[in-house]
Amino acid sequence: MTIAPSARRYQDLLSFFDCDHGKRLDPIRHPDRMVNTIAESELSRFRSAAVLIAVTRPDANAESQVVLTVRSANLKSHAGQISFPGGTTEKQDRDSVATALRETHEEIGLHPSNVEVIGCIGDIALPSGYRVTPVVGIIDNNLDYLANPAEVEAIFHAPLSLALDPEAYTHSAVTYRDVERTVLELHYEEHRIWGATAAILYHLASLI
After folding, report:
1. What is the C-alpha to C-alpha distance for residues 177 and 165, in angstroms, rounded to an integer?
2. 8 Å CB contact between 10 and 99
3. Are 122 and 199 in contact (CB under 8 A)?
4. Residue 47 half-sphere exposure, CB side, CA atoms within 13 Å?
């Protein structure tokens, strides 16, 4: 029986975290060398944060997808950008998984009991001063979400097969704090996924 590419990529994801490769926590590199240099020299001062890469289970009616959000236009930083649900680590969080699940529940109403965490990938250091741990979790594909309007403008899904295709990513330039930086970007329908979100997905695609 022929396995559809979308289902195959989902199985590749599960297999990766089932084996020793899923325990690799190599840092996620930015496409801009200067950003990596700054991150390495100042990492001890960065604040911890975590995000959830929520992946839906495929079925006969739908392929596996990744849950993404459009950040509220009223936010002070990264307004209107595409991101994963997540946020800053707080004292009550026992680890990065707890941070990612708590923040995801607060932002999009996805309850932790509906998430099967399968692993984490390496941290990414952001120019904004955060060290972010991406947590990967599996969810059903028919769940309802409730966006927190203070943080999230919209919630959408992108195909896992697209997100895990390294050739789908391109390089572009953006200006951040008056300095031009090289970033990765991924396009899906009307959405431009770029910056840290694209770097995290590209890293995961490269690992798998």
Report:
1. 31
2. no
3. no
4. 11
Structure tokens at 23: 């325990």
For the chain, first and last CA: distance in Å? 23
Specify which residues 182 forms β-bridges with: 173
Which CATH number describes the domain made up of 24-160?
A: 3.90.79.10
Residue in the structure block whose two tokens are 């009991």: 113
Of 25, 106, 6, nearest in space to 63 by CA: 6
Cβ atoms 18, 102 nearer than 8 A: no
**Model-wide pTM > 0.70:** yes
Distance of CA 189 to the CA centre of its chain: 18
206: how many CB neighbours lie within 10 A of its CB?
12
* φ and ψ at residue 186, rounded to 5 degrees: -135, 135
Strands 130-139, 124-125: pairing is antiparallel
Q: Report the distance separating Cα 195 and Cα 176, nearest Å.
A: 11
* Mean pLDDT in order along the chain per 10 residues (208 residues): 69 89 75 76 82 94 94 60 94 96 97 96 87 96 92 94 96 74 91 94 94
150, two tokens: 């203070």
Amino acid at site 118:
I
Instruction: List, in order, residues 6 or more apart from 24 with CB less than 8 Å away.
Output: 121, 122, 207
Q: Which residues pair with 79 in a beta bridge?
A: none
203 close to 29: Cβ distance less than 8 angstroms: yes
